[in-house]
Backbone:
């Protein structure tokens, strides 16, 4: 044990005693493993890491933190892309990866009860033989944990039709920031009282730690059809998307990639997309056979009418996987065409897509910073990849471009994040989407759960708020600040 | 008692800011009796003047509407574009009332409940603070989702002033497969496990109705499949489909339970009355029943659904009966809910006493 502050040392000793020595990490080299999540631009070595096995373990540690005023952060698989699981230097990182039990599966009730460390895809694997699945499918589904999905309200390519994590969680067991264990919702729907489950999902780990999650299971669709369409340019592909939506068709996914993304994906995985395509669309339809067949025919025609020069429909699972391979590899593939890149995540109303894409192209032209576009076109969720070379001193320009893209999202009435979360990375942008009063009112929720601001502090909100103060009544300097009583950090 | 009828968010905020005492919020009054009776109100906020469709982004399938708008008026307005808000509570009333009570109907099987289609809200707190959360895009995870917190809160945290909601394309064809049964669960289970994707599976005490609503090309094969599975007959929408059970001076109960407990819950309800008016959203774990008010019956049914992880709520009943029972029953996490209430409405002005635990 090296250089722990007194409160951390006390927690480390108590946790080792209660949870076992192997559940506590204090060596600096080992702590370093946890210094960042999927967004490696932000790093902080936690003061102490604890690896609980049960809800009682989590409650024990949180209670000690609460008693001693020590901040704590929960972490699952660490795949988050907004620094939401960034540790606190003076705090405890509670790593949930040992809580991996699937506690109950009831296909008849269309529910599974799982521990938060369960990997997303493992739920679907566990119920696949019964013909069921767990719908939210973030790209990281082979490694990301359900607890992290709950924190971030994760989506995925198919959330266009099936919704996000919030639509698929019906119950939670939560260790509240004072260390008490509470249950909300459950196997039955419409639990009386405030929708605490709905408020907790997507709160980015700031309201407590989920120790058990009850999720909805969905019947696997009778058929899935996947179409790849090659277009000369983004405008044509965008027009096809609008036409599909206007026709009243609801695909399970509509994904779009531009020429740069296609080139990167070709270089990385040889996905064999239509040569010469300036844009490709992947449209996936699922459901009952007759319905999907009819919709597929309509989608093919709408794509052709919009200028698609090549259409491919996957005839089997292998071809379907091949079509998706290019899309799924796109982020990582950027390494093939650029030494460095920033993954942005913003949302615009779908009908604004063509205009926003033109604006992004102009921005790229103006700054000389290339931007590759990969996105969930059906719901207007953009993932521009801002390409740069740090060794050429392009970092600042790239960050400026990335920020300007968020400006475009806000100007068009969209959002600064569709699925990656605010976390540490985007809290500085929250004030551009919401007024101070909006943010203060949101923080009333936090004050009900975590009045001492110990639970994942410094995330989501640009300025922490002192609980007990009413929103909307601020005039100029915070009164406590003016009186020299407190400082606003 | 005073009444104020704001026509804008600003007027609503001013009315709350400039008043003291308890506040009741009403739309068209369709669900005004729901929940606990609550304390008398010093001020009634009548939302019927806030009834505009603020923006219908047709190509985005998103609508922003003031909370006092009638649900039927909203559906008519967006229906022109062959779209609809996929919520079908049999009690129609206003959008705000539907949100505040989280009311739902048969098609919740496919589309969920109001919280699932709500993208953004503007709310006004008891002290006149106006706040927004969410937005007008389908996908958005920036900030806490106040919409979910206010949905189903019975107006006790503040007033929902405007709401932005996701829309769906209107289905063009419908088939209904109907089959008589006293114990519907085995049929419901078969349908849920089949390839069909019904929009609703409802049971009225005698007949199970499976709704297939989709494209013209999509409905027949599904209906044939469901008919073959269930031995049912294919026809049109029966009159009164989805209506809420009713009875003179009855207690209207909403029972929830894990899906597979349907037959057990039905049996328990039938033990309490002979042939009681009832309606089950049979694929969703929700059963509505209208029974003679009786505290013992309520207690018995609560014990039954508790075994299936559910709850029994007296949604409506004669006041004299409501005064004698806890209409909400025991609630998980009540302490935390009280803390949420204390943060949003520290003086306890808003719809005082209507909600769980006397909130």
Residues:
């Amino acid at each position: 044990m090296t250089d722990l502050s007194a409160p951390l040392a006390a927690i480390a000793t108590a946790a080792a005693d209660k949870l076992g020595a192997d559940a506590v990490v204090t060596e600096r080299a080992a702590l370093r493993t946890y210094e960042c999540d999927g967004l490696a631009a932000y790093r902080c070595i936690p003061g102490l890491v604890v690896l609980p096995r049960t809800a009682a373990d989590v409650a024990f540690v949180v209670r000690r933190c609460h008693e001693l005023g020590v901040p704590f952060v929960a972490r699952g698989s660490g795949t988050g892309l907004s620094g939401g699981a960034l540790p606190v230097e003076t705090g405890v990182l509670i790593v949930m990866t040992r809580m991996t039990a699937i506690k109950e599966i009831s296909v008849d009730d269309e529910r599974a009860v799982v521990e938060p460390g369960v990997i997303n895809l493992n739920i679907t694997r566990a119920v696949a033989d019964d013909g069921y699945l767990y719908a939210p499918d973030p790209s990281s589904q082979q490694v990301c944990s359900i607890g992290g999905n709950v924190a971030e309200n994760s989506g995925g390519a198919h959330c266009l039709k099936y919704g996000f994590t919030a639509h698929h969680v019906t119950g939670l067991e939560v260790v509240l920031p004072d260390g008490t264990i509470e249950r909300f919702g459950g196997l039955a729907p419409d639990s009386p009282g405030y929708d605490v489950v709905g408020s907790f999902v997507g709160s980015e780990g700031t309201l407590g730690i989920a120790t058990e999650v009850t999720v909805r299971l969905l019947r696997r669709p009778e058929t899935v059809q996947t179409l790849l369409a090659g277009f000369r340019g983004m405008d044509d592909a965008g027009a096809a998307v609008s036409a599909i939506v206007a026709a009243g068709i609801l695909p399970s996914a509509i994904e779009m990639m531009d020429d740069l993304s296609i080139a990167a994906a070709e270089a990385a995985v040889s996905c064999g997309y239509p040569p010469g395509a300036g844009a490709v669309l992947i449209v996936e339809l699922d459901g009952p056979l007759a319905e999907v067949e009819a919709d597929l025919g309509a989608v093919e025609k709408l794509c052709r009418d919009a200028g698609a020069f090549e259409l491919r429909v996957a005839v089997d699972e292998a071809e379907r996987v091949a079509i998706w391979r290019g899309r799924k590899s796109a982020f990582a593939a950027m390494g093939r065409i650029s030494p460095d890149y920033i993954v942005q995540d913003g949302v615009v109303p779908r009908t604004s897509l063509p205009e926003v894409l033109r604006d992004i192209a102009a921005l790229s032209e103006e700054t000389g910073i290339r931007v590759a576009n990969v996105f969930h076109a059906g719901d207007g969720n953009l993932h521009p990849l801002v390409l740069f070379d740090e060794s050429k001193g392009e970092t600042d320009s790239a960050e400026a471009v990335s920020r300007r893209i968020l400006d475009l999202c806000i100007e068009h009435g969209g959002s600064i994040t569709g699925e990656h979360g605010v976390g540490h990375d985007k809290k500085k942008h929250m004030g551009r989407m919401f007024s101070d009063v909006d943010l203060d009112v949101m923080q009333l929720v936090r004050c009900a759960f975590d009045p001492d601001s110990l639970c994942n502090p410094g995330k989501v909100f640009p300025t922490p708020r002192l609980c007990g103060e009413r929103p909307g009544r601020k005039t100029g300097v915070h009164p406590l600040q003016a009186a020299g009583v407190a400082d606003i950090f | 008692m005073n009444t104020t009828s704001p026509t804008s968010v600003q007027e609503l905020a001013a009315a709350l800011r400039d008043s003291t005492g308890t506040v009741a919020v009403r739309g068209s009054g369709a669900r005004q009796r729901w929940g606990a009776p609550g304390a008398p109100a010093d001020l009634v906020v009548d939302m019927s003047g806030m009834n505009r469709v603020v923006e219908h982004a047709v190509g985005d399938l998103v609508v922003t509407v003031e909370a006092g708008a009638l649900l039927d008026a909203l559906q008519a307005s967006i229906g022109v574009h062959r779209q609809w808000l996929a919520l079908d509570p049999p009690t129609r009333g206003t959008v705000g009332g539907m949100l505040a009570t989280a009311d739902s109907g048969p098609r919740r099987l496919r589309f969920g409940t109001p919280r699932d289609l709500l993208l953004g809200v503007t709310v006004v707190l008891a002290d006149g603070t106006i706040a927004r959360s969410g937005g007008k895009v389908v996908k958005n995870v920036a900030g806490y989702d106040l919409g979910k917190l206010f949905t189903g809160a019975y107006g006790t945290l503040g007033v929902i002033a405007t709401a932005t909601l996701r829309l769906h394309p209107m289905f063009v064809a419908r088939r209904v497969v109907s089959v008589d049964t006293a114990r519907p669960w085995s049929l419901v289970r078969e349908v849920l496990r089949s390839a069909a994707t019904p929009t609703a599976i409802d049971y009225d005490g005698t007949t199970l109705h499976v709704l297939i609503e989709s494209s013209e090309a999509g409905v027949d094969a599904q209906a044939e499949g469901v008919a073959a599975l269930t031995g049912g007959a294919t026809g049109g929408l029966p009159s009164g489909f989805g209506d809420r059970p009713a009875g003179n001076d009855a207690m209207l109960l909403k029972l929830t339970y894990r899906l597979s407990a349907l037959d057990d819950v039905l049996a328990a309800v039938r033990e309490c009355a002979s042939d009681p008016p009832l309606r089950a959203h049979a694929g969703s774990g929700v059963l509505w029943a209208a029974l003679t008010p009786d505290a013992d019956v309520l207690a018995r049914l609560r014990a039954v659904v508790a075994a299936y992880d559910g709850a029994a709520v007296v949604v409506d009943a004669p006041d004299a009966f409501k005064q004698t029972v806890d209409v909400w029953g025991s609630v998980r996490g009540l302490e935390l809910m009280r803390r949420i209430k204390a943060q949003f409405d520290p003086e306890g002005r808003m719809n005082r006493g209507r909600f769980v635990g006397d909130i």
About this structure: The longest strand of chain A covers residues 223-231.
